[in-house]
Automatic annotation (TrEMBL):
Residue ranges of domain TB in the record: 191-234
Primary subcellular site in the record, as a coarse category: secreted
Residue stretches making up the EGF-like domain: 153-185
Protein's UniProt name: Fibrillin 2
Pfam family, one: Fibrillin_U_N
Signal peptide region: 1-26
Cellular component aspect of the GO annotation: extracellular region
Top-level taxon: Eukaryota
Record InterPro entries: EGF, FBN_EGF_N, Fibrillin_U_N, GAS-SHBG-PROS, TB_dom, TB_dom_sf
Subcellular location: Secreted
Disulfide-linked positions: C157-C167, C175-C184
Keyword Secreted: yes
């Protein structure tokens, strides 16, 4: 016969373990005050074990589990396989196309590139690489402004580079030594100035003067430099010693002192 003391012990045991399984054979179930307390047969014990096993399988595991031991869930951007309990499947908001979702919201494309989305072979798959920010579509490059060529590797200069300069970027010239300016149009080389040309030979070098070609040819010169370069024809030559917008004044020898009459 169950007493109140035995029932108190039973309640304490239930509080500690969280469940109670009692196998009763050939005896009436325990009662208190004419009411049945608990009766569990063999089938009910097996069902309880299945519930516990199922509960253990449903607990989430893996590196991407958030929450506590009693309330766990997959961290944002991760999910489980159907019927699984490991948070190892990444979630991508956008379609990965011909690639696959390798981490939350990031796709690994067939080319090996990692991006938020991948193109499809029918529209964006390319077997070539476009340079300088060009976009590839169906094995053809669509170049950004300022570049041209099959692979967008050739820069474009709207105005041609002068005096041996070459185009190295959109409207950007690399000038050879002695030239400057957006199109290498300014000549800052210095050399001797010649006042006479005879039989394609430069003669009459101005003594003690080294200047730019512009300065030489706009003043007394007929040829300039070494090797000698002919001065361009000037239908309206500048007034001697005056060159508009030229940074260097004409270098002339100092005037001779006047002789005294005494």
């Amino acid at each position: 016969m169950w007493t109140k003391r035995m029932f108190s012990c039973l309640v304490g045991l239930v509080a500690l373990t969280g469940f109670l399984v009692v196998k009763v054979t050939g005896q009436d179930p325990p009662t208190l005050g004419g009411k049945t307390l608990l009766k569990v047969d063999g089938d009910q014990t097996a069902a309880s074990n299945r519930v516990r096993r199922r509960g253990k399988q449903e607990s989430l595991r893996g590196p991407n589990v958030c929450g506590s031991r009693f309330h766990s869930y997959c961290c944002p951007g991760w999910k489980t396989l159907p019927g699984g309990n490991q948070c190892i499947v990444p979630i991508c908001r956008n379609s990965c196309g011909d690639g696959f979702c390798s981490r939350p919201n990031m796709c690994t494309c067939p080319s090996g590139q990692i991006a938020p989305t991948c193109g499809t072979k029918s529209t964006q798959q390319c077997n070539i690489r476009c340079m300088n920010g060009g976009l590839c579509a169906e094995d053809h490059c669509q170049c950004q402004k300022g570049f041209s060529g099959s692979y967008c590797g050739q820069p474009v200069c709207d105005s041609k580079c002068q005096n041996g300069g070459r185009c190295i970027g959109p409207n950007r010239c690399a000038c050879v030594y002695g030239f400057t300016g957006p199109q290498c149009e300014r000549d800052y080389r210095t050399g001797p100035c010649f006042t006479k040309v005879s039989n394609q030979m430069c003669q009459g070098q101005v003594s003690g003067i080294v200047c730019t070609k512009t300065l030489c040819c706009a003043t007394v010169g007929r040829a300039w430099g070494h090797p000698c370069e002919m001065c361009p024809a000037q239908p309206q030559p500048c007034r001697r010693g005056n060159i508009s917008h030229h940074p260097h004044p004409l270098l002339t020898p100092p005037p001779r002192p006047k002789k005294s009459l005494l």
